[in-house]
Amino acid sequence: MSQEIFKNIPQIKYEGPGSKNALSFKYYDANKVIDGKPMKEYLKYAMAWWHNLSATGQDMFGQGTADKSFGSKTLGTMEHAHAKVDAGFEFMTKLGVEYFCFHDADLIPEGDTLSESNKRLDEIAEHIVAKQKAKGIKCLWGTANLFSNPRFLNGAGSSNSADVYAYAAAQIKKALDLTVKFGGVGYVFWGGREGYETLLNTDIKFEQENIANLMHLAITYGRSIGFKGDFYIEPKPKEPTKHQYDFDAATTIGFIRQYGLEKDFKLNIEANHATLAGHTFQHDLRISAINGMLGSVDANTGDSLLGWDTDQFPWSVYDTTLAMYEILKAGGLTGGLNFDSKVRRPSYTHEDLFYGFILGMDAFALGSIKAKALIADGRLDGFVKDRYASFGSGIGAKIRDHSATLEELAAYALSKEKVDLPGSGRQEFLESIVNQVLFQ
């Protein structure tokens, strides 16, 4: 029986918007039924193993500030790996978080050989499965870390080394084995170094074909061992690689279709990655949704004054409302909301980990409530419908049903001689509706 690690933290409960208790939910009421479903089914929250149990706040300018030993005597050992399992499941249980996400390298210290790493993964997997059975906690998705080790300096699927490519395949195989063992509903490819720095030494077509082949191999193997979930690609435009192949949702969807992956793949959209690509979070959600590829979400936010991936906990209710507006209108997620978020370096205590999750879980809960209110209000949808009303009859209807020819359209335009301005977009009016619904 493991000892309690977060000794000063009680079970986090819903106390409502008026509560001043910092260790309580103000808006996330897990069992509140909305449209026939409890809130926890709309908002399948997940803990990111890497940030919450591993990140100490170390950055390029300074050492870590947070103690993530969790009672272990020595970091980077299997003893520490087991301590992280105990800490993670206690943490999720106290918050009511029912899912976790992992990279293979998050779970164990890498061995000197691949076989040693696999042996350690098998050992830790037994501990995790036992905890899952005891706590009722599930796996949202798994993945392999194909970017941290120096062997992946030129990428994994995009590597110029066949040996590195084969090693990446071995890691993917093992990570898929673990994902199935943990009952995961998704498997993610994040191409952290799948890209290039200069065209002077790069064959893009060659590299993209190899990446796609690796994904096809993963599909074949995953289905053969009973993996029934979705495969995801997580777009990101840059950092660490200058030109990453999965730049944004649209680019990634093009890649998926070009290489015949669309039957098995959807997208895992991260908020901070969308903004680094020069988009809003809701833009990449909408692009994914209209292409039938909205799968899962990494819930975080960036800092508009910083140009890199800060992975902050989401707190802006404007952002979470507009994100949930897209998600709910798309019919929800096949995956969930993984908090790929880390507390700031000065927030170094165990309590701060809970405050971060409470912030994010409440922000998305309130965003969900307000998004439902926006949909029920109907004025946004009504305005969009009316804005395109000219395509509902006459020449507009012929355009939409593809029966109009170019000659017919030209003749129609000549008959009009002069074209009036389109109807006003009324952005400011629509933004005032959002404000009204948010604060009523």
From TrEMBL:
Transmembrane segments: none annotated. This is Xylose isomerase. Coiled coil: none annotated. Its EC number is 5.3.1.5. GO terms for molecular function: metal ion binding; xylose isomerase activity. GO terms for biological process: D-xylose metabolic process. It comes from the Eukaryota. It is an enzyme of class 5 (isomerase). Belongs to the xylose isomerase family. InterPro entries: Xyl_isomerase-like_sf (IPR036237), Xylose_isom_bac (IPR013452), Xylose_isomerase (IPR001998). It comes from uncultured symbiotic protist of Reticulitermes speratus. The lineage of its organism: Eukaryota, environmental samples. Keywords: Carbohydrate metabolism, Isomerase, Metal-binding, Xylose metabolism. It catalyses: alpha-D-xylose = alpha-D-xylulofuranose. Signal peptide: none annotated.
